[in-house]
Amino acid sequence: MVFNSLVFVVFFAVVAAFHHSRAPWRLKKLVLLAASWAFYGAWNPPFLLLLWASTVLDYYCALAMEKATSPSRRKFFIGLSLVGNLGMLAYFKYGKFVVDNVAAGLGALGVHWTPPAFDLALPVGISFYTFHTLSYTLDVYRGELAARRSLVDFAMAVSFFPQLVAGPIMRAAAFLPQLETEKRGSREQWANGLTLFVIGLFQKMVLADGILAPAVDGAFVPDGTHSFVDSWLGTLAFSGQIFFDFAGYSLCALGIARCLGFELMDNFNSPYGAIGFSDFWRRWHISLSTWLRDYLYIPLGGNRGGRRRTDINLMLTMLIGGLWHGASWAFVVWGGLHGIYLVIERWVRGSRPTEPTSVVTFAFGITATYVLTCFTWVFFRAADFTTAWEMVRAMVGFGTTLPGQTSSLVRAAVSVVVIVGMLWTQVRYRKHHLEDILVAMSPVRRGVMLGAMLFTIAIVGGGQRAFIYFQF
Amino acid sequence: MHSSTSSFRALPDGWSSLLIAALFAIAALGSYEAFWRLRGFRPSLTNNEALWCEARAKVESDAIVLIGSSRLQLGIDPTLLGETLGGKSVVDLALEGASFVPALDDLAADDWFHGTVVIEYMPRHWFTFDAFSRGRAQEFLRACLTSSLVGPIENRLSRHLDERLALMGPELQLMSLLSYVAKHHYVPASNHEVLRADRSGRLHYAERSNRSEAQFWERSLSQLALTERFDHLRNDVAAIRRRGGRIVVYRSPIQSTVLQDEDQRFPAREWLPRLTNALPVELIDFDAWPERDSFQFPDGEHPDDADVPRLTAILARELGRVVQY
Hints:
The complex is a heterodimer.
Chain A: H1 6-19, H2 25-41, H3 48-67, H4 71-108, H5 126-142, H6 151-159, H7 161-164, H8 172-175, H9 187-219, H10 228-259, H11 277-283, H12 286-297, H13 306-325, H14 329-349, H15 359-381, H16 385-398, H17 409-428, H18 434-440, H19 443-460
Chain B: H1 14-38, H2 49-57, E1 64-67, H3 70-73, H4 78-84, E2 90-92, H5 101-109, E3 116-120, H6 123-127, H7 131-145, H8 151-164, H9 174-184, E4 193-195, E5 201-203, H10 223-242, E6 246-251, H11 256-265, H12 268-278, E7 282-285, H13 308-323
Parallel strand pairs in B: 1-2, 1-3, 3-6, 6-7
Antiparallel strand pairs in B: 4-5
Helix pairs in contact in B: 2-7, 4-13, 5-7, 5-10
């Protein structure tokens, strides 16, 4: 089930009605849990078994770790949790990738091996809920969180439907305390939540799907001819599409959770207003970047082992972060490029201040960060390496000179307007909070803006595309 | 600007602004709907995967299934065809801009199906590489296989809106409308195409157009590739015929530039016999009809709404003749 569907409106109305009834909190939690499973099962019911397996495994591993008297037993149970969750992820997400690469590697050595058919559907959101649940066992292992006695509470923390399939990757430590007291959305929370939901839907349905997606699809045609203009337009459009798609989803998730009385964490903060890549990763997919920082980069040693060790840790973290997105070398390249950018930035920046001191360095910092980020998006979006390489070649002037095949002039013009608007807004409000801006608006102005968004959502069309991050 | 937040801040007069938003949206949508209705627009479904999958699911074991592209989808009324043939179930799986091959493969692989398949004859789908049209058809077929559990419910809910509101129609979607205005410098007067729940489309022409098919043609198949294509189709046809099914190839009326283009590259007198010699199919060819010159297709290949019932009646008559219903 996706947020941008009529079925979801009906589903949410029923869930919210029960959630705000006089039923006891324990029953409400059970119903919310069942609703979350129904939300997930609507895609492919058998995959619920994986979600349940992951939940039960980590519930018992955490309890066992807490009871364990020796460090070796604690290590055994955290190992079990890691092997169980990452093993499941590896099998379903990376199995085919590994098998194909082994076959290719053997082929390069002259050994011809035809791998067995490995045609598994990827369970929606498996990367997200695996990270949700691992944050719990890792925190319990470190002694930073007490194991939960209530399986229902823990299952809710893993499966809560607004954040189940595409985040934000909520830490159990941040979500579990919210289940201790009864939650229901106040009038203010409802108003706030619905406002965010409308803005999120507008970002997703109008900007990402209605306007930018067709320009992107036209440019990233495999085996197509790629011109300089088309490649740049397609790549810039994708920078907007992926942002509005994912940030829109996050806003919807936040708004829905808020209507039910829950709070989720920040996921985006004007990423294209970033100056430098460490700044970018503090603003893009924040719940993932902080997860990787806390559970991978810092345990690897962070920046405590000298310059070379820090660079290696950064590269490893970004490569794994890239691979987290999908089982393909293109994602590894995407993560690798970001790793290289971060390493170079550390060398160049040294001890200089983070914020530029002149308009020129400010403009240069933002532009350079955005343009270099766009080059990485090519690998993220292209269907294969050949297409990505052709696009990059075209972007640096080695493409075909054929005129635009991507889209009509109107589509291109509207896409450019949206991209420029996005960049202007993110640079202009890079230090502002969305809610501060909404609070500062007069109710009439805010109402007209939301009304115009609803109107555009209704007339934009563009079909019902799934959120891009569902595939991860 | 944070686009999401962990700290909740109350919006002053949050409900007032939501009320204003709702009123604004209702007024804007009402005016928009009224404007287009007054210009002559009527509600139309969208020719999307959901509607196609719904039709695919309705294929009964002995149904008559229409497959091909726009000439069938926009030229024949399946409901009327079924009624004319004495209540036979007719399902329209033809799809604008798509090849018939994936749908035929699908029907051939469906052991349950033993009905009649009417395949549109359009030379580029039979004798050229035609990767784009095949890809489009395959996308639709794939969508049926990957549809979520709630997909059919969503389709039914959205259909209620599509059937009632002109503004939900594909021609009034924002980007289509902007493209139209940019091209013609005026807003459209009424729907060019209305798609109904049985997936048949009705065209309403504002003017004649000198449409050329040649721009869509991909490279011709080599002799070897053509032999492979026929082998592939022969297997499909044989599978359906083994179960008692029938295959009819239907060459619908075409005129002017479209006819010239096709006859120049794939002359019917040469290529139709090649097809019927290679495959055990029945043929309905408009060239043999007494009414062949009585149609006027504004774009050379798709009939105007007013001509669809007559064309459907002729197809019913011809089907009755070749399949003996």
